[in-house]
Design brief:
By secondary structure, the chain is an alpha+beta fold. 44% of the residues lie in helices and 11% in strands. 45% of the residues are buried.
Length: 1906
């Protein structure tokens, strides 16, 4: 029965072949069928869709319901469906820096403050895709993660790493060892010696059970088990990922929004010491930027006074709060520059006298003179004591100094330290100001270093420095303003500073400056809140100092901060009547007008209470128009009223103590109301000053208002300049934002009328005002917009979701809000370029969506909205939808309308009426619906159909728009009698986006990612709050929303297609945004629906591609799109890996697409299924939808006929590589059964890569073994002999097989007739091949085997060629190579150069390319020829270096070891996969009739893998497979593939001489079995015997690091097997084996000798001659050695000698040819050649033991043919010609001419006669001028010369060689060999008497010219 079935199969195969013929005939001209025309077609039951079109996807949700999986649980079950916890909505509490969170103390707050506080304190609302990290974007195969996965790899043993360098064999011990073996003493052919040596050597371990007769099936099973054990599971962990910096599909999680800090600097104030200590001194520090003329930090006040000094002030100062005792501060600098100064100001207690007088003692007294001036000091102290008692609460300016910050930072890093003080002052005055660091002073240079422009100043990594400031400048009473300070600072940087000429106040201020630590302990915020960690409240704190950045900082507010800074600047009382000279200003913050209403909100300075109710400015003595330099810091109340104001009271302070004179006299009053029209009042003020107390109710008015009956200084002119600055996260300080927030809050609170500025807005006007305030947001400043970004977006979203009810009407603000959002987002994008990620997403917006955005009123603790989630029976305000909807979309589903239309006026008065009318209109005819009127009748984009149509539509589609939310009823219900409407944000957003047009649409497109991400988060939240995350996907979202999404995706896809050439950068962003959106939707929506969206996009692109001349840019975009979609973490599940491909029933069977690679013409569904699994058939592409798209892209782009897509090869291959490597490392698929399912999705990859074989990079070329079979037509063959012995000839000599000319079905024969293919780069080819190996490793073997059974011989051969290439591709390079340059580095740099060219010259915007160079976008220019000759661009030369250097930084020894370890494991695993596949092919082929030719191919791959550098582990398995193959098909080797037999013998022998014992054991076992099988077939193993002998001689002749010691052990092992082989003991076999082994051993001994003379060319050739003579009876071997000699001669340019060897070879061949074939035109034998040389007669075959050429295995080499003879003669003629022996050329051609004449080869004859003409004309020209060489006699004497002793030779040297030259050469050579001291030279040429010579020396006779 089984036989009959096989027979039936054969018949069907014949039919299939016929069908193939017909099909390829039919389609031969069609360019549509891109693939596999030459392969096969199969009949199937489904229609075809060309690969360039997308197929209809499977309805995934439906499929999963209708095909439940039998498996209940386990890894396979997880493949079927997304895990239940796939998406989580997490509320995570935000990190708070401080121990208690910053919130206002008041309990009552207005709505805006409440919103702000909520915005700063609520938890982050995060949507987590739990498995997201398993998507390809986070593939662990990138370098950083690879290392972890490579731990614990076994070290693979490679002979190339074990073997020492070639030369080390020559070391002396080896020499001695060899000598002792007495080889030299034994004449050639001494059997005794050979046997003696062999008997004494040890064999390697024998393989157990090798000689048992085990059934083949059992052997296969054992081999299989052993091969499969201890295998590395993850192939890609061993393979570096392709050269990509940042994968396009990686979306990094945005940073958590947090408070902004610049670079932080810690300043510690250690001590302040003056020459005299008489009173307390108060200090403050602040940063100033000279260039920006701006104070860039608040003041830091510190007190370094001694307790004694502090005691003087006790009456005036309340007990100090610990927060005011800080002596160290952390400054933040966002924009560090060379212009930043640290300014230190000193104040003292007010005293009588101006500053100069008060400072005088500090300048004149020195500490050293304290005893001398004791009395004076006592007097000063008592004065100071009095002033402190009386005026202790007032201060006066004293002194200042400044430190140039960047000098400190830059020199702290350097070592330019001067150890002595450097004088900076000019003139005779000692001392000036200087900065001393670590008790040394920074030299003059650093002080004067000035820079222009902003150097990059780094404050994060300098060395901490201790500064000692020695000089202070006294304050000038009339130069206290900031303006004056900037002038001083600018002057300070000049070399001839004015300040240097001033007399300084000498003091010592010690300060430490260092980079601030990451988390300093005991830190207080500017609001005095304790920062975590604060272990102990009693410790002196460090203060964080608030920065006032030099330029705007764009960071959203995240903490509550509400500070006010007041800077009194100047006062002009010049025109004030009366005495007012020592003036101070008292500042108070009032909440009412009563004096007791001052609030304790003014921050204390140093050593005082934390807050106080008042602050005083310093007094400038006797100045009526003083300047002030005070900074007063106020904590603003959260909620301000109209009564809050700043009150300034001016006092005259009486310094002298007079009778009846009060201490202070009020001399004026003024104030600033804090609120003006509801807005905080800040800025510069020039205020009039009132002479008397202000009247009642003054606080609500401004002092500029002339109040009746009040007296003002200087006629009500502004005389007091003051600046008020707010740093607040409550007050926006922007009129547009203020107005918007005020209106929105008024709506919330329902408080009308609203006062905005000078306007009062009534309710009836509110709608217009609201809309205009939304559109006016565009005019606001960017900085406040960014600061209040979170709140602003929240409010806009709220307006969309809950349209307000104004005056009883619902006002739709959806459109206005959408427009405002689009414009805000675009402003951010354009202005904050530095904040974008690689996809152009602004990080501030991204983090808003990720952390902040949530659906309004969906707090985790809020009640579930209404009964049953959404379905409350509540009325809903529904409206007709805008008709401005693109009609061109032709959506196929009936559409329902949104309840939002900003353009419709006259809304129905009550929703009930509307609902009634809608429900009543159900029966309306739908034909008016414009959506369904596709084609030309559709309304044009943006046009308005007639009103009637509009209203019909409204009723027509609104009936199913009834969904609603319920909400707890609010005050609105009572006002309007109904609930406010509540919409779903994502639905509204989609609708607004679809209907928008013009510039709004453009803005939205520019930043599509933002709206997409918002929409997705809204969808997830909606599902989460309605408990729908587990609901069936089909019922999650209403149809109208899905229609909107479909419309949106469709229009965006068409935008991409139509604009990609014009707006490259924008389209790239849009394309990736759309892809990420669809990727997100796959997690939440109906997946079949999302697939249909993907198809829509594909369709748009495909239709455009046909019309493009250069499609690569658009295809590149589509690849990016696909790669992002496929990076979904459940990509495998989405592809339905467990579905069975059942072809959909179709009424008429049709021929399937030519992509089919199955030859099965079978009605059997099973066969059909197998075929469909391996080809990109329609069922495959439908059911494995995404995998189908990926593989289709690969097939189309790699197709050699695909025009202009060459540049995308790397990109598409990387995409596949990335997917597979991601699956490989995915813990969910670690189970082999699961992995096999995953691999099933990629089975067509095998066929696709088989198609590309001609284009793959030829890795075999780089190897010295042998190239890939290159087809040479037989007649071109001889043309290879340009060099003396070409590679192919040498291979033949060596006994390796010659590249075959006629291998059946070799893939190159099929393609060579076509056009020249472009080759892939090495990197791309390698990536492609590793993907192939992964599929072969993980796919189900039975499925593979079934498919192989269906493949034709041609295709199986193609597969084998592919495996052959894989062997070369993954060959182990060896440690030595790793130590040199990585072989592919240069290639990579070329790829990078190509990308740079693309950027600089090519089709893509340069900036964009640089942004995106990380993606490995283009391997070459898209057109393939954008810049003509690519190598001519000059700038490219040096472009290569930067890449190489980054690749090859000096790697440590360990890294090189690690690389070699990985490479070794990869090579082993790759080859084992190849071996597995070969085994499957062999099993497959066993049952088919076409096995012979294919087995030859299998053997070829096996032999090739043996020839490569392999690990011991692999070779063991490889030899096992080879033994099994030979035992299954012995006739294959010994009858058909005789070339392969020779090759196999060579490979086995080579491994028999391996230095690794396990390899030797297996190789000798294989060799023994080979002989045994050969013997069993014909009781003789002449073939193997001859092949082995030839192999050994060629191995010894060519191999560099060959070790005879190891080979001797293997020969002994073979002998041992023969002795132990009981079965054949009675036959002649053991004796024959022994003969062979001894013969091999003798050859070995000879060749060892050759090794010794490797460096002595004359001796080497002499030995070769002797060896060749020894092979007189073995024509093949003699020929080999003659050829070897010819090669050596031609290497040394001895052309005449090489020609003689070749003539001898030709004579030998002629001798045997004349025995084999009697052809008249062939030479009779060697006699024919005697005219050339009489020695040729040596080649005659006359002796008794000549082997007959008929005997099997003799003269079977390639040269024993007519063409071989011709080749040898042509080479001989060429050599004679080069040697100048033109007469001999003629003689050689005399033999050749008759052969060519007989063959009528006119072309060859013409060449010969041309060469003859040349030869004869040279004889004529060079008559008498030819010189062939110079000859010298050389003799050797001394026992150390061995068998050279007493021998004399004639040396031939090149023409015109001087005696001195040869003498010097020989002396040098032998001197080095024996030692200069041992070598003696005999100077004369008389006969030598040996007795007179010293036996311990070696003597050489001086060469004599002959």
């Amino acid at each position: 029965m089984a036989e009959r079935r096989a027979f039936a199969q054969k018949i069907s195969r014949t039919v299939a072949a016929e069908v193939r013929k017909q099909i390829s005939g039919q389609y031969s001209g069609s360019p549509q069928l891109l693939k596999n025309l030459n392969v096969v077609g199969s009949i199937s039951h489904h229609t075809t869709v060309p690969l360039t079109e997308a197929v209809d996807p499977v309805d995934l949700e439906e499929y999963l319901i209708t095909h439940p999986l039998a498996v209940d649980s386990g890894p396979l079950r997880d493949l079927i469906e997304f895990p239940p916890d796939d998406i989580e909505v997490v509320y995570s509490p935000r990190d708070c820096r401080t121990l208690v969170s910053a919130v206002p103390e008041e309990s009552e707050m207005d709505p805006h403050v409440r919103d702000c506080i909520r915005s700063y304190t609520e938890d982050w609302a995060i949507v987590i895709r739990k498995y997201h990290k398993l998507g390809t974007g986070f593939n662990p195969n990138t370098l950083d993660k690879q290392k972890e996965r490579q731990k614990g790899l076994p070290k693979q043993v490679f002979e190339s790493d074990e073997a020492p360098d070639g030369n080390s064999y020559q070391d002396e011990q080896d020499d001695l060892k060899r000598r002792s073996m007495s080889i030299d003493d034994t004449p050639r052919g001494s059997w005794a010696c050979s046997i003696f040596d062999l008997k004494n050597s040890l064999p390697d371990a024998l393989l157990p059970n090798l000689l048992d007769r085990t059934p083949n099936e059992e052997i296969d099973r054992q081999n299989d088990d052993q091969r499969k054990s201890n295998r590395h599971k993850e192939l890609f962990a061993l393979h570096p990922s392709p050269d990509e910096e940042e994968p396009i599909e990686r979306l990094s999680i945005p940073d958590v929004p947090k408070e902004h800090f610049g670079q932080r600097l810690l300043v510690k104030c250690l001590s302040l010491k003056f020459e005299i200590e008489i009173e307390p001194i108060f200090a403050s520090l602040a940063l100033y930027d000279v260039k920006e003329k701006k104070k860039i930090s608040e003041n830091f006040y510190f007190d370094l006074n001694s307790e004694q000094m502090k005691g003087l002030l006790r009456p005036h100062v309340p007990p100090a709060a610990i927060t005011t005792l800080a002596r160290s501060a952390i400054f933040s600098i966002t924009y560090p520059s060379q212009d930043v100064f640290l300014v230190i100001k000193l104040e003292k207690v007010l005293q009588q006298g101006d500053i100069g007088e008060c400072a005088e003692p500090y300048m004149i007294f020195k500490e050293a003179d304290a005893t001398k001036n004791k009395e004076k000091l006592e007097k000063l102290r008592s004065q100071a004591d009095q002033f402190c008692q009386r005026l202790g609460k007032y201060r006066m300016p004293f002194a200042w100094t400044a430190i140039h910050l960047m000098n400190i930072v830059s020199s702290a890093g350097s070592l330019e330290r001067d150890s002595t003080e450097v004088e900076i002052s000019t003139g005779e005055r000692k001392g000036s100001w200087s900065e001393r660091r670590n008790s040394s002073i920074v030299g003059r240079r650093s002080l004067e270093r000035t820079t222009s422009g902003d150097d990059t100043c780094n404050l994060t990594s300098f060395r901490p420095a201790t500064l000692t400031v020695t000089n202070f400048f006294k304050q000038e009473g009339d130069r206290l303003s900031d303006e004056d300070l900037y002038k001083f600072l600018a002057d300070m940087r000049r070399p001839s500073s004015v300040l240097r000429r001033l007399r300084p106040i000498t003091a010592q201020l010690k300060i430490d400056i260092s980079p601030a630590p990451e988390n300093p302990h005991y830190c207080l915020t500017p609001e005095l809140l304790q920062v975590k960690l604060y272990p102990d409240s009693r410790v002196r704190p460090t203060r964080e100092i608030l920065e006032f950045p030099a330029r705007d900082v764009y960071v959203p507010n995240t903490t509550y901060r509400n500070l006010l800074y007041i800077y009194p600047q100047s006062l002009n009382f010049a025109n004030r009547q009366g005495s007012a000279r020592n003036i101070t200003v008292k500042v108070q913050f009032m909440y009412g007008e009563d004096p007791s209403n001052a609030m304790p909100v003014i921050f204390g300075k140093s050593s005082c209470s934390e807050f106080s109710k008042e602050a005083y400015t310093a007094v400038v003595y006797h100045n009526r128009s003083p300047d002030f330099h005070e900074e007063i810091k106020v904590k603003l109340p959260a909620t301000l009223t109209d009564h809050h104001h700043l009150l300034f009271t001016f006092y005259h302070v009486s310094c002298q103590q007079k009778q009846n004179t009060p201490l202070e006299t009020p001399v004026g009053y003024t104030w600033i109301p804090m609120l003006q029209n509801g807005r905080l009042k800040t800025g510069q003020f020039c205020l009039p000053v009132s002479l008397e107390k202000p009247p009642q109710a003054y606080s609500v008015l401004s002092p500029e208002v002339p109040l009746p009956g009040m007296k003002w200084v200087d006629n009500h002119k502004g005389v007091f300049n003051v600046e008020v600055v707010a740093v607040s996260s409550i007050h926006t300080q922007d009129p547009y934002l203020d107005k918007f927030f005020a209106l929105v809050n008024a709506l919330d609170e329902h408080m009308f009328p609203v006062r905005i500025g000078d306007m009062r807005i009534m309710e009836n006007n509110l709608e217009n005002e609201l809309k205009s305030s939304i559109s006016a947001l565009n005019s606001s400043q960017l900085e406040p917009v960014v600061r209040f970004l979170h709140l602003l977006l929240d409010k806009l979203i709220l307006l969309v979701v809950r349209p307000p009810v104004i005056a009883g009407q619902i006002v739709n603000l959806g459109q206005a809000s959408f427009e405002a959002m689009a414009s805000i987002i675009n402003r951010l994008h354009k202005n904050l370029e530095g904040n974008h990620d690689q996809h152009g997403r602004n990080s501030l917006l991204a983090s808003y969506i990720y952390y902040v955005f949530r659906l309004p009123n969906t707090y985790p603790n809020s009640p579930s909205p209404g009964p049953g989630g959404l379905g409350g029976s509540v009325h809903y305000a529904t409206m007709a939808r805008s008709a401005v909807r693109p009609a061109s979309l032709n959506l196929n589903r009936s559409r329902s309308l949104s309840n939002s239309n900003p353009d419709i006026s006259g809304t129905p008065t009550s929703p009930d009426d509307e609902v009634r009318s809608i429900i009543g209109s159900k029966g309306l005819d739908r034909s008016n619906s414009w959506v369904n009127t596709g084609g030309p009748k559709a309304a044009p984009w943006g046009s308005n159909p007639s009103p009637s149509a509009e209203s019909t539509q409204a009723m027509d589609r609104s009936c199913n728009r009834m969904s609603s939310h319920t909400e707890t009823s609010s005050f609105l219900q009572t006002l309007t009698g109904r609930l406010p409407t509540k919409k779903l944000f994502h639905e509204e957003l989609a609708l607004q986006w679809v209907v928008c047009s013009g510039s709004v649409r453009e803005s939205a497109l520019q930043q599509a990612w933002f709206f997409f991400e918002l929409m997705v988060k809204s969808m997830v939240h909606h599902l989460y709050f309605n408990d729908k995350l587990d609901a069936p996907r089909k019922s999650r979202f209403p149809e109208r929303f899905m229609d909107d999404i479909a419309a949106l995706v469709s229009t965006i896809a068409s935008d991409i297609v139509s604009r990609f050439q014009k707006d490259t950068e924008m389209v790239e962003r849009l394309n990736t945004s759309l892809a990420f959106f669809l990727n997100d939707l796959l997690s939440v929506m109906d997946r079949g629906f999302v697939f249909s969206l993907i198809k829509t996009c594909y369709k748009q692109v495909s239709s455009k591609l046909y019309s493009l001349p250069n499609p690569s840019v658009l295809v590149s975009l589509r690849l990016d799109f696909l790669r992002i979609v496929c990076s979904h973490e459940h990509y495998v599940t989405l592809n339905l890996p467990c579905s069975l491909l059942t072809p959909p029933a179709s009424p008429s069977p049709s021929v399937s697409s030519a992509t089919s690679q199955s030859s099965g013409f079978s009605t059997n569904v099973q066969d059909q299924k197998i075929a469909n699994m391996f080809e990109l058939s329609v069922p495959f592409r439908q059911q494995h939808y995404l995998a189908g798209l990926v593989l289709t892209e690969l097939a189309v782009i790699l197709d050699p006929d695909a025009e202009g897509l060459f540049g995308l090869h790397k990109k598409v291959i990387n995409m596949v590589h990335n997917l597979l490597s991601s699956h490989d490392s995915d813990p969910r698929y670690s189970d082999p059964q699961t992995k096999a399912r995953v691999a099933m999705l990629y089975l067509p990859l095998i066929g696709i890569i088989m198609e590309t074989v001609p284009q793959l990079y030829d890795f075999t070329e780089t190897q010295n073994q042998r190239g890939r079979p290159i087809c040479i037509a037989p007649d071109d063959y001889e043309s290879e002999s340009g060099s003396m012995i070409s590679q192919t000839v040498a291979m033949a000599i060596a006994g390796t097989s010659v590249p075959q000319l006629t291998r059946p079905g070799s893939f190159l024969l099929t393609s060579s007739s076509g056009r020249q293919h472009t080759t892939f780069s090495a990197e791309s080819s390698r990536s492609l091949l590793i993907c192939l190996l992964w599929v072969l490793k993980n796919a189900d073997e039975t499925v593979l085997q079934k498919w192989f059974t269906d493949l034709s011989v041609l295709q199986l051969n193609r597969l084998l060629d592919l495996l052959y290439l894989c062997v070369s591709c993954f060959e182990y390079k060896g440690k030595k190579v790793f130590e040199r340059m990585n072989s592919l580095t240069f290639k990579k740099s070329k790829d990078m150069r190509a990308k740079l060219e693309e950027a600089i010259l090519g089709s893509i915007g340069a900036r964009q390319e640089m942004v995106r160079r990380s993606r490995g976008q283009l391997e070459r220019s898209p057109s393939g020829s954008a810049f003509g000759s690519q190598e001519n661009l000059r700038w490219r030369k040096d472009m290569t270096h930067w890449r190489q250097n980054t690749e090859k930084l000096d790697k440590s020894r360990a890294e090189i070891e690690h690389e070699a370890l990985i490479d070794g494991n990869l090579a082993t695993e790759a080859n084992l996969i190849i071996l597995d596949t070969l085994e499957i092919v062999v099993q497959t082929v066993s049952v088919t009739e076409s096995k012979e030719s294919i087995l030859g191919g299998v053997l070829k791959v096996l032999l090739h893998s043996m020839a490569c550098n392999q690990s011991a582990v692999y070779l063991q398995h490889c030899f096992a497979t080879q033994r099994a193959l030979v035992s299954k098909f012995p006739e294959l080797l010994f009858e058909e593939e005789t070339e392969q037999c020779a090759d196999l013998c060579l490979r086995l022998l080579r491994h028999c001489s391996s230095s690794i014992s396990t390899i030797r054991s297996h190789a000798s076992a294989s060799l023994y079995l080979l002989m045994r099988q050969n013997f069993e077939i014909g009781n003789n193993f002449a073939r193997v015997k001859m092949q082995v002998t030839m192999s050994l001689s060629s191995l010894v002749g060519t191999s560099q690091n060959f070790n005879e010691e190891f080979l001797r052990r293997s020969l002994k092992t073979i002998l041992t097997y023969a002795e132990e082989d009981l079965e054949l003991r009675e036959t002649t076999f053991p004796d024959q084996v022994q003969d062979l082994v001894f013969n091999l051993h003798m050859i070995l001994s000879d060749t060892v000798k050759m090794k010794e003379h490797q460096e002595d060319p004359e001796m080497l050739i002499d030995l070769m001659y002797r060896i060749a003579k020894g092979y007189q009876t073995s024509p093949d071997l003699r020929l080999t050695w003659l050829q070897n000699m010819a090669g050596k001669h031609s290497e040394r340019s001895n052309h005449a000698e090489a020609a003689q060897c070749l003539v001898h070879s030709a004579a030998l061949v002629a001798e045997y040819l004349s025995m084999l074939e009697d052809r008249k035109y062939l030479p009779v034998g060697c006699v024919t050649f005697q005219n050339i040389s009489s020695n040729v007669l040596e080649e005659s075959a006359v002796s008794d033991d000549v082997v007959s050429p008929d005997e099997e295995g003799i003269c079977s080499g390639k040269y024993f043919t007519e063409s071989g003879l011709v080749g040898l003669l042509e080479q001989a003629a060429a050599s004679f010609s080069m040697a100048g022996m033109y007469e001999a050329v003629n003689e050689v051609y005399k033999v050749l001419i008759p052969i060519h004449e007989a063959n009528r080869d006119a072309k060859k004859l013409s060449t010969i006669h041309g060469k003859l003409q040349e030869a004869f004309s040279k004889i004529v020209h060079q008559d008498g001028k030819r010189m062939f060489g110079t000859y010298f006699r050389v003799g050797f004497y001394g026992t150390k010369f061995g068998d050279l002793d007493e021998q004399e030779f004639v040396y031939k040297e090149p023409a015109i060689t001087k005696l001195a030259e040869i003498s010097h050469r020989l002396e040098g050579f032998y001197g080095e060999r024996f030692g200069e001291d041992v070598l003696e030279v005999i100077k004369d040429s008389n006969p030598v008497d040996k007795c007179k010579l010293d036996p311990n020396k070696v003597w050489r006779m001086t060469p004599n010219a002959l």
